[in-house]
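INFO  loader      accepted 1 record
INFO  loader      residues=734
INFO  predictor   begin
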Amino acid sequence: MRTEDVLAAIATGLWRWENASDTVTLDGEAARLLGMPEEPVTLTVSAARSCLHPIDWNEIDGIFNLALAERTLAEARLRVVDESGRVIRTVRVRAKPVSTSPAEGDHEMIGTVQAITEPQPGTTVERSSVTGDWRRSREAFLLDAGRALAEARSTAEVLRVAASLSMPGFSPDGLAVYGVSGERLTIIGHHGHAPEDSAPFEGMTMDSDYPAAEVVRTGRAIYLPTPESYADRYPATWRYVKRFGRHSWAFLPLIVAGRTLGTWMAAFKHRVAFSPDERSVLTTVARMMAQALARASVAETERELSLGLQRTMMPTLGPEIPGMTMAARYVPTGGGLQIGGDWYDMIPLPGGTARSEHWGGRFALVIGDVQGHDVRAAGLMGQLRIALRAYASEGHRPDAVLSRASRFLAGLQHYPGRDGGAVPGGGPRTDAGAAVMDEWYSVAGPRFATCLYLEVDPENGTLDIARAGHPDPVIRTADGTAFVRQTEGGLPLGIEADSDYPTTRLVLGPGETLMLCTDGLIETGGHDLATGWARLRPVLEQDSGGSLEKLADTLIQAVHGPTSHYTTGPLVDRREDDIALLLLSRDLAPARLAGGIPRRTALTVAQAEPERIAGVRRQLRELLHDWADAEQIDSAELMVSEMITNVLVHTDGDALLVAEARGEPGDRRLRVEVADTSDELPHRRHPGELASSGRGLVLMEVLADAWGVDPRGEGKSIWFELYECGGTGPGASS
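INFO  predictor   done
INFO  writer      dumping tokens
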């Protein structure tokens, strides 16, 4: 007798579903149970679906997918409906997946379908384990669990989230997460057990008689609903497990991209039948946990790599320097490996000639930013930093240091035979390494770097600055006023092999602070250079109690702390960048100067650079940004322009400007001097109505509260004074 005839005698039909053809084959009895003529038939999936209640189809679809994933038996109760949607009978479907072509992922489900006898009136109806309320609770739980696991940033956080999960109706009270190290299991973390309880399971070999090891070997989940099932299947390890007093266990593989990373064990003090729906919840949580652990592992590896790179590449500021204080910060904010091309450095300089073996008190400060935010940028930064230290240690001046560094960076990104040329020694390029380099450059391209290099003399506060496309330094005067100090500059390093970098000399006065930073501090949060400086200025000017370390922390928090989103800029692009920050302060003398601490700046305008007059005007306005009378600021700008223009037009030398504001706010005196090397004194002229010059002294006579011309040993100095709010000014003198 055929098997089909035997099954038909007990009202059981056979069916087969093939995913390759997406068809369902029914024998005669199965076709009858599904409301069709009693004869074998092959249907499309959509035709078979029309025979079942829509809600039940959704349920069986999930159960079958779970069975395919776990290679286990699937079972479900289904309602068969007629063409009008009326339920005509209830059937029980059982099936097991069979792989037909593993390489191509083809498989089929082979199973039975059997009628369920309708209950008699007054009897208790067996209900499906899945009800509408349970399903809604399950979906809400999975949404919350997915969100919490997605936000976990470390392995410890993933384990805390897993331990706090409250599954609807069957929450485990103990869990353990196992990883793989070589041929042994490792316990990544556990919950609901004492630390000493994990000793028997630590370091088990992969071939041991333990469910977690078998799950890793096979990649399939193991469900043990009773202690008896555990003891019968794994007698060797049951003696270690029975003392915990648990009644059900689930061991699920942690799979990412087809690779089993470990096992998640969920243990229950109450009996769990592990119905298809319960297994579906556990499997979904295991998948989400595997993804979360993989992300956390990558993030922790990147953080460790970032910290290692930072420790290797970021220097310490060295010993204390008498009369000066320094502070530095580096904050990786751009994501990825949390390391990029920003750096700072402090370099002791030779005290005498370049060949001297003795180190003097002078030192150099460097801050820079290599284009990009990746491993290549970090590598170029490390090489460039070493080159700068070497050039500085040889005793070169700032301009020569940057010129050599630019040539070094340009040469570092060029190799023989690039762009198809010939290699040294003649002949075509044939090496495979150069071809790889060609492909690399076609994608990445050469990089450049901005840099600011300055030499510091601690004895007199002299700063010699050379700048390569980097933001200008900022000076905070002794009275707390901060302004951008414009300096001469050249192209970023690496753009041209032979670039010039003019040097600007400044004097850092007692009580003054110098700030050097990369553009990340200014532009993070959608700012440009103007709006970014407007955000930083009040922070830099606020009282930090004299602590440079506190000021550095405050500046970083202003752009990267919890409150920084209140000060976002006007640009749509909110990408963040690394931040490097250097602060240098010259200690204030114990005795305060009479009339208060002065606010002072000095600038030189060369004959060949008349365009710098506009920069002088901006510098003067920055110096007087809190002056009470705005008209006096306009007057000061106008007079300074006239004074410097006269020097450039009527003499052959440069103009040296010194501006100083002294006194308490509201009662200050501004004194501006412009000196040159010409002995010819200015004299009053009577320009006509259309004359383009000759009004300098007339303007000073009208706008200044006091002015004069002082002869010097070589040349002269013309000066004017303005008294805030029209007063006499503190200590006014001619």
